[in-house]
Specification:
Helix content is 7%, strand content 56%. By secondary structure, it is mostly beta strands. It has a 14-stranded antiparallel sheet, with helices on one face. Strand 6 (82-90) and strand 7 form a beta hairpin. The protein is elongated, with a radius of gyration of 22 Å. The termini are far apart. This is MORN repeat variant. Residues 1-21 form the signal peptide.
Length: 182
């Protein structure tokens, strides 16, 4: 029960956006004192660059990224002072998604979704360039453009399928080490 109260109190304090320092002290032997603060970095023009909560000096939770006009243009998730989990970047003008990406222990690892400025998915791919991954591309009208896979180094390999803007298969290409087979 004490842990539930402690977690609820942490969630309440974490939702604050002020840059004050809060300390939580408890009398329980299994709970410790936690120092909570906000880290804000700035761009050369004085606008915010990144703002994230610090727990005992370590970045935790969503860090919000800003453009030169102090508007939020994305976020990245931190765990134990390391980028981990999903992030999002937005187009500056439209605020529609530009990229959704995944990090694992500070390295891009997982998937990346890129969008056209109109909000339609441009490509979906695995972000792991160190092994076999998949890549899907779409036309600006949202119809599938190509599907294939890459190997170590992000080079195309195997069978790739290419479609026209109506979704009709136009050609099939076999790749080896990023080059079409002859």
């Amino acid at each position: 029960m004490k842990k539930l109260v402690y977690i609820s109190l942490l969630l309440f304090i974490c939702c604050k956006t002020s840059s004050q320092v809060n300390e939580i002290n408890t009398d329980s032997t299994d709970l410790k004192s936690v120092k909570i603060d906000t880290l804000t970095t700035y761009q050369p023009n004085g606008a915010k660059n990144l703002e994230v909560i610090l727990f005992d000096g370590k970045k935790e939770g969503n860090g919000y990224m800003y453009n030169g006009q102090n508007e939020i243009v994305g976020f990245k998730h931190f765990e134990n002072d390391t980028v981990n989990g999903f992030g999002l970047s937005l187009y500056n003008k439209t605020k529609k998604p530009k990229h959704i990406y995944q990090y694992n222990n500070g390295k891009m690892d997982g998937m990346i979704i890129s969008f056209y400025e109109n909000g339609i998915i441009e490509k979906f791919r695995s972000s792991d360039i160190f092994s076999i991954s998949q890549k899907l591309r779409f036309h600006k009208n949202g119809v599938i453009k190509s599907i294939g896979q890459t190997q170590e180094g992000g080079k195309a390999f195997g069978t790739w399928l290419y479609f026209n803007e109506k979704g009709i298969l136009e050609r099939t290409v076999e790749y080896e080490n990023g080059e079409p087979k002859k």
